[in-house]
Recover the amino acids of this structure.
């Protein structure tokens, strides 16, 4: 079957360049991609901004969300046990997997035991992390993504480039081309036509499938339930039609109670798409019961560690587990805006991916330089509904790499020089003087356009300024004398303001306060 | 009262006029600045790149320079923001940790000092030009500087302040990022200048010479005659006519 050929395409036919710089250059030279990513991220972040403004108490709710996540992760062992006990009492089979391989093995065993021929999936980043589709195909189980974006990506033989909008890097003409190939006829690049084709196609697949597979947005400890947020209704089909359901979830997806879900349900859709609530929100507590109209006969939840517990107890990274995978940091990120998700090289992209991908891997030597692909502007932190300080974490990753001896050697030498020069003001003064002599040959019209050596990266896009003929410290004596000569009496109002501020600060210091913002 | 200037290495070496404008403006309010010469750089390039030992070498000069100051003023939100990271650098060093916390409490970026400390928002400046403002990320997001520059600019006579599209987006400077990831940074700064041009402003102003050097360099590379200046320079020109 033609669709089989498309579905069995593995990721290996997309050979990715080794470094983030090379991958970013591919994206930077792809105008279609950049335009598509810009268009959608702008729409999403404007939507989020509006939703947050309309909400009216966004900052307070952000803090509530953060507190719920902090509390849950601090007591994760307790809540995981509570969740597992309650889910088992509902008749759900709970499996714990320490590694990705283990989780795949558990899923494949279920598929084999059920003699499954096909699996329908709703969107799940964890299954992307495990490359589960490839694994299922290796035992001849047809695996079909049913989220529209994921379906497109699967047809293209690619991986998602955004946590919630997997095909963000494609425009509708590219999508029409892909779907036309699948349809065996030319489909016009119109949303209703394209979505209509996919809907008809997938309906057959839902009815045939032996197993429905999902991710999990939140797992509710107090009742052993799992909650899914979605807009297309496909997750609801996946969790009601097939006889067997398998859910994969990261071990950190837990929240204690349904009342905590109220806060999360307020934060997640608004942060992700600017919606007050997604079109569908499903809460599932166990397999089909006697009087239920539908639902699977057998339900499995596989709870995955795969590097997550590395963050537990680590003061610099534990908050990473607070992430609710809304994608707001991607939409806010000025780097993601230009390079899209594939440049990050891992399952998770954007600022969260730049931190998560290395953090999930304890071998520092295998870390790519994605933590370096950030200007540290902090837009991610500002966008995050649970206030994860990603911009700080990026620096901690860089530091760990340096301290364990995997830093760039040339940069290391440069920084040694920097430290030595900046340790003594006399050295800094001398360097400025030497620099002024050195730049003489390079200055043109008061700027330095040369692209030689270390100037290349900067001057490919700019003209560098020259060092001033006289540094501030050299000019200070003269300036100070001039200002002192004409000095004015301070306005008593200002004088009093300053004295009051000083007195207040002294008081705060005694009390150990943090001072002004 | 001892009020000290933290010039920042970039203004010291490349943009001394910014420090001069700041000193002259403050003198008008009777603030007599002093300049401790042992200061060098806040250490941010090393800190951000993960070289914390080297960052501490620079930071120690700053701690020493401003130990006795009552107020510290810098013409940069980013370098002032870096001082807020010092407690992390010295968390295992109780003596310097106490100094770092003390420095954090008494440090102000230029516009913060004008508005929060002096209580001055109208400097009596006249600046008959069309101006747009780039809110630098660290000043805005680490220090929370939003209203202060707006208040200062709104009171400038004859000045037309026009909005910068996508103002809150980073200009792509990011210190060593601009060199290490030069093509990504280049794409970012190119877009930022596009937005500056779209605003049709004659003058771009801001509170950080790192970001302004980045944007000015790109504008100049593209032969776009937009004048780029620190807000202190703009205000000083506006009150002195020079």
């Amino acid at each position: 079957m033609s669709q089989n050929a498309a579905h069995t395409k593995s990721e290996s036919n997309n050979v990715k360049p080794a470094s983030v710089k090379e991958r970013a250059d591919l994206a930077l030279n792809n105008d279609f991609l950049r335009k598509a990513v810009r268009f959608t991220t702008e729409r999403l972040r404007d939507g989020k901004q509006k939703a947050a403004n309309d909400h009216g108490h966004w900052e307070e709710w952000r803090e509530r969300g953060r507190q719920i996540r902090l509390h849950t992760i601090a007591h994760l062992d307790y809540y995981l046990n509570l969740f597992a006990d309650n889910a088992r009492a509902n008749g759900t089979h709970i499996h714990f997997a320490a590694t990705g391989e283990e989780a795949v093995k558990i899923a494949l065993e279920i598929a084999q035991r059920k003699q499954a021929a096909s699996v329908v999936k709703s969107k799940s980043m964890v299954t992307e992390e495990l490359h589960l589709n490839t694994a299922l195909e290796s035992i001849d189980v047809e695996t079909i993504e049913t989220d529209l974006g994921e379906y497109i990506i699967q047809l293209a033989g690619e991986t998602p480039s955004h946590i919630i909008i997997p095909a963000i890097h494609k425009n509708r003409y590219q999508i029409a081309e892909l779907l036309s190939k699948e349809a065996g006829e030319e489909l016009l690049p119109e949303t209703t036509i394209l979505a209509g084709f996919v809907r008809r196609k997938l309906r057959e697949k839902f009815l045939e499938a032996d197993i429905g597979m999902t991710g999990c947005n939140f797992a509710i400890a107090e009742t052993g339930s799992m909650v899914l947020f979605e807009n297309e209704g496909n997750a609801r089909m996946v969790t009601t039609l097939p006889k067997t359901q398998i859910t994969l979830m990261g071990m950190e997806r837990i929240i204690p109670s349904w009342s905590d879900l109220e806060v999360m349900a307020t934060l997640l859709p608004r942060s992700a798409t600017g919606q007050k609530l997604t079109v569908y929100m499903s809460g599932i507590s166990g397999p089909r019961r006697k009087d239920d109209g539908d639902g699977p006969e057998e339900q499995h939840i596989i709870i995955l560690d795969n590097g997550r517990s590395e963050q537990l107890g680590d003061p610099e990274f534990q908050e990473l587990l607070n992430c609710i995978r809304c994608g707001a940091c991607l939409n806010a990120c000025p780097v993601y805006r230009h390079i899209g998700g594939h440049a990050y090289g891992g399952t998770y992209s954007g600022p969260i991916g730049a931190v998560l991908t290395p953090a999930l891997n304890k071998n520092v030597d295998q870390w790519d330089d994605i933590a370096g692909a950030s200007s540290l502007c902090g837009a991610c932190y500002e966008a995050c509904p649970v206030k994860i300080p990603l911009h700080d974490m990026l620096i901690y990753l860089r530091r760990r790499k340096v301290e364990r001896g995997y830093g760039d050697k040339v940069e290391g030498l440069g920084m040694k020089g920097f430290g030595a020069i900046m340790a003594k003001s006399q050295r800094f003064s001398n360097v400025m003087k030497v620099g002024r002599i050195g730049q003489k040959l390079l200055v043109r019209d008061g700027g330095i356009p040369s692209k030689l050596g270390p100037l290349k990266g900067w001057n490919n896009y700019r003209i560098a300024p020259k060092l001033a003929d006289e540094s501030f410290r050299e000019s200070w004596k003269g300036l100070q004398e001039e200002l002192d000569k004409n000095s004015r009496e301070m306005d008593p109002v200002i004088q009093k303001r300053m004295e009051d501020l000083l007195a207040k600060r002294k008081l705060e210091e005694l009390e150990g306060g943090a001072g002004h913002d | 009262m001892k009020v000290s200037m933290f010039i920042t290495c970039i203004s010291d070496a490349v943009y001394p006029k910014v420090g001069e404008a700041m000193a002259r403006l403050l003198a008008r309010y009777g603030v007599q600045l002093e300049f401790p010469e042992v200061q060098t750089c806040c250490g941010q390039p090393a800190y951000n790149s993960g070289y914390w030992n080297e960052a501490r070498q620079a930071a120690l000069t700053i701690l020493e320079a401003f130990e006795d100051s009552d107020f510290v003023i810098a013409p940069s939100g980013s370098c002032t923001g870096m001082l807020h990271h010092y407690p992390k650098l010295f968390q295992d060093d109780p003596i310097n940790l106490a100094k770092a916390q003390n420095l954090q409490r008494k440090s102000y970026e230029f516009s913060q000092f004008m508005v929060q400390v002096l209580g001055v928002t109208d400097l009596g400046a006249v600046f008959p030009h069309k101006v747009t403002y780039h809110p630098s990320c660290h000043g805005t997001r680490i220090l929370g500087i939003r209203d202060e520059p707006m208040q200062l600019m709104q009171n400038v006579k004859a000045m037309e302040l026009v909005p910068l599209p996508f103002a809150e987006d980073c200009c792509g400077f990011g210190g060593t990022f601009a060199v290490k990831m030069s093509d990504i940074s280049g794409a970012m700064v190119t877009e930022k200048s596009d937005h500056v041009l779209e605003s049709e402003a004659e003058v771009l102003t801001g509170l950080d010479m790192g970001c302004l050097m980045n944007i000015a360099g790109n504008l100049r590379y593209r032969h776009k005659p937009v004048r780029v200046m620190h807000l202190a320079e703009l205000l000083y020109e506006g009150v002195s006519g020079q």
Notes: Chain A has 23 helices and twelve strands. The radius of gyration of chain A is 28 Å. The first strand of chain A starts at residue 93 and ends at 97. Residues 472-510 of chain A form one domain.
